[in-house]
Write a structure and sequence with these properties.
The chain has one domain (about 5-330): Alpha/Beta hydrolase fold, catalytic domain (Rossmann fold, 3-Layer(aba) Sandwich). Helix content is about 35%, strand content about 20%. The chain is built from 11 helices and 12 strands. Strands 1-2-4-3-5-6-7-10-9-8 form a 10-stranded mixed beta sheet, with helices on both faces. It is globular. The protein starts with 8 loop residues before the first helix and ends in a 10-residue tail after the last helix.
């Protein structure tokens, strides 16, 4: 979510180098057999296939997908949304999502921003026209999902989403706009839905947070899809040392989704997320509805375990590998092996 004026030259140079490296890497991997070890597999990532003609594409996004070999009918779908200054291929290489897709048997969708929409490569989560149901960028992602479900015979009731930074903010928007579509979502270093309506407000929200009551935050979500009364499970992750997005945004996200689900802060229980600890809220049926994890020593990015993912800008070494944790907590690892 970091804008160019707020990114140091050294980090910008690293991102450019990583992009050049990934282009070369993609060409090599296209001619290689599958890696021989999980570590090698995670470091290489996968060659993502671009799909065109998936719909009217109101948000003018690129669609890239990864379908593991021998994927069985009825497989789940995971949507991954990159942050500013990242490509879909870089995000996959750093996170190791495609290695998990091969291991556990699910399809992977990577929407990617076009530079013509945003010169910094950020999803436009702060523009009302980009995040309204069936319009803009959220409309494009919804069309991509429908295309994948139809073409690959996926389980339309088993769709999950995660996003980082601007991708996290767009994840929040998609969960609000299409609550009936997603079983669960993870917002990483993101901002609450409705936190801004233009670029200047977006920068202020990122750096300072926005003050609203829990009910005011919840109303913004509920107005996005007013005919819906069931809401997906939401997992909120943030770095305690995040220097880009103020942690007040994670706290506001927590308040927003607790209020949407009609839950109280006081009802939190302790939960284990890999080697991390966090808070968990259940509904009256005992189902998890909101999760909240702050990693004290993490800056702005996705926590990854080197070897399961690749350390790079905004993919930060940790003892907790977030994609693996999500796979486990969403039940994707306990399902029968699909490949």
């Amino acid at each position: 979510m970091k804008m160019r004026m707020n990114v140091s030259e050294s980090v910008a140079a690293l991102i450019r180098k990583q992009r050049d490296f990934q282009k070369v890497l993609g060409n090599l991997v296209d001619h290689l057999e599958a890696p021989s070890s999980p570590q090698e597999e995670a470091s290489l990532g996968a060659v993502l296939n671009e799909v065109v003609g998936f719909g009217s594409n109101p948000g003018s996004l690129r669609m890239l997908e990864y379908i593991p070999p021998r994927l069985k009918p009825g497989a789940p779908l995971v949507v991954a949304l990159h942050g500013c200054g990242q490509s879909a291929a870089e995000f996959d290489c750093g996170s190791g999502w495609s290695a998990l897709a091969r291991k556990y048997g699910f399809a992977l969708l990577y929407p990617e921003q076009n530079s013509s929409n945003n010169s910094h490569g950020c999803f436009n989560w702060f523009r009302p026209s980009a995040i309204a149901r069936d319009r803009g960028e959220v409309g494009s992602v919804r069309q991509m999902m429908a295309s994948m479900v139809e073409r690959h015979d996926l389980d339309a009731q088993a769709t999950y989403i995660m996003g980082l930074s601007a991708g996290g903010a767009l994840t929040a928007a998609l969960l609000a706009a299409y609550p009936e579509v997603f079983r669960a979502g993870a917002i990483v270093a993101g901002v609450p839905f409705g936190a801004a309506r233009d670029a200047m407000n977006a920068f202020s929200a990122m750096t300072n947070g926005v003050v609203k009551t829990a009910d005011e935050w919840a109303a913004l979500v509920q107005q996005a899809a007013p005919e819906q009364d069931a809401w997906p499970r939401v997992s909120i992750w943030h770095g305690g040392d995040d220097q880009v997005v103020n942690i007040k945004n994670a706290e506001a996200l927590r308040a927003q989704w607790l209020a949407v689900h009609g839950l109280s802060e006081e009802d939190a229980k302790s939960g284990k997320f890999g080697k991390a600890r966090g808070q968990v809220w259940h509904d009256d049926k005992g189902e998890i509805k909101v999760e909240y994890v702050v990693l004290d020593d993490l800056d702005h990015g996705v926590p990854i375990v080197p070897g399961q993912g690749q350390e790079m800008p905004f993919m930060l070494a940790s003892n907790t590998h977030l994609p693996q944790v999500l796979v486990e907590r969403w039940g994707l690892s306990s399902a029968s092996k699909r490949i």
